[in-house]
Amino acid sequence: MLTPIDLGGTFMFADSGTVIPVTEARDKLTELIATTKQGRFPVIGRYREPGAVLVAPDLVRLLPQLLSTMAGETGKFVAEGRRKDSDRTVYQLGDPWPFVAIALWMNGHQALFAQFASDTLATIQSKDVANGIPRMTIAEFLDALPMTLGGDMPEAERLAAIELLRQCLPSMNAAR
Fold this sequence. Notes:
Elements: E1 3-6, E2 11-14, E3 20-21, H1 22-36, E4 43-46, E5 49-53, H2 57-84, H3 97-106, H4 110-130, H5 138-149, H6 155-172
Parallel strand pairs: 3-4
Antiparallel strand pairs: 1-2, 4-5
Helix pairs in contact: 2-4, 3-4, 4-6, 5-6
């Protein structure tokens, strides 16, 4: 029977309903990997605290496409608001963008975080051009991030994430 395991607001399923201890997982790693091909998500951790979830490679390969789609949808939403009132300052990108961005950053996926932000900005800019309004600048996008990332991200991490984007967004797409 599959039992949900709470991973901090996200639920995954473990066969036993418990977190598999790291020492036990080492001995069963081949078997646990095989279960991912059967639609299972073995949860591994220490002291009953989830630390990692094994996921089939095909699902992992979907992540960039899912992030790109979410970035596109967020970009369309923000651009629609700008179309209705082009003088309006964008203070926030809207849910669920910040939750995904924070999860990427806080779990060490800075490159995916930067690509996610870049794809979002590219969609906003593309829609702005189609709507006949000035394209959102990188500075305007970065100005929206403090409130977007808000209190769910420690300040030092938020500042580091914004600084990374300040440095890399211009080179990610020279047309911006």
